[in-house]
Predict the structure of Zinc-binding dehydrogenase.
Amino acid sequence: MRALLVDRSRPGNLRLGDVADPEPAPHQALVRVHATSLNFGEAKHVLAEAPEGSVPGWDAAGVVERAAVDGSGPPIGTPVVTLASDGAWAELRAVDTAWLGTVPAGADLGTIATIPVAGASALRALRRLGPLLGRRVLITGATGGVGRYAVQLARRAGAHVIASTGDPATHGAGLRALGAHEVVGGPEDLTAHVDGVVDMVGGLQLIKAYARLAEHGTLVSVGRATDTPEQFPYGAFSGAPEAHDRSITSFFLLRCTNVGPDLTLLADLVSQGDLSPQITWRATWDKAAEAVTALLDRTVHGKAVLDIA
């Protein structure tokens, strides 16, 4: 099969090449990939650390070519959305059926490919905050893929949504259209404490966001857009009277379990138009190096999709 292989001698650290077809385990389906969505973490970290000649990629949507022999998962011909730690940037992918969601017939699989990391991370992180109806929720790094899904899902859940972006003048109108009630330049611009934070930035912004948590508030650390370490000032965890019992929790989607039903739910919402995937860059996979560059240069605000030609 054809696949995008790690090759650090090439632009974007990738080249199209031929590799053996994957051989699925009994609990895996073999999927014919139609499209994949790239994530900033893949462009920045995976391509720098993955072995030469390996096939990276977390997100992919396609059609079941061979059903799992143990009887789990959907039958041949079913459109699906898939998630795994590698193997998405190829014509064929073997994927655990627990990490596979079904897709409504006729849905654009390039659109659906945006869901796994961005959509499922947003959904799981917001669930970690607990019931959202009437609560104030801050989404940092809101113009990224996870952030845009988080804004929409938090609004659907009844939260008062505050989106944080480094350029409110440019991105404010778009974030409000997705459901944000307020758009701010950073946690320091908040006019009141918040009940929950989904943080995609890390570093100093995480520290500032934690300081703005209300009593019993929770911050879920999802992303690392900055390399700045989190060095909290003395007394940050002293339990001040106005903000007692606050918590920070880490998050890593690929360590979660039973993600398949969430992928199915999100695929239904996207295909019905209830969630916007916010695709801002799309091309065939021979343009993969351009997509990687655009992600690293932060010129992609939303999702980048590669159609498997």
Residues 114 and 277 are 6 Å apart (CA to CA). The two ends are 12 Å apart (CA to CA).
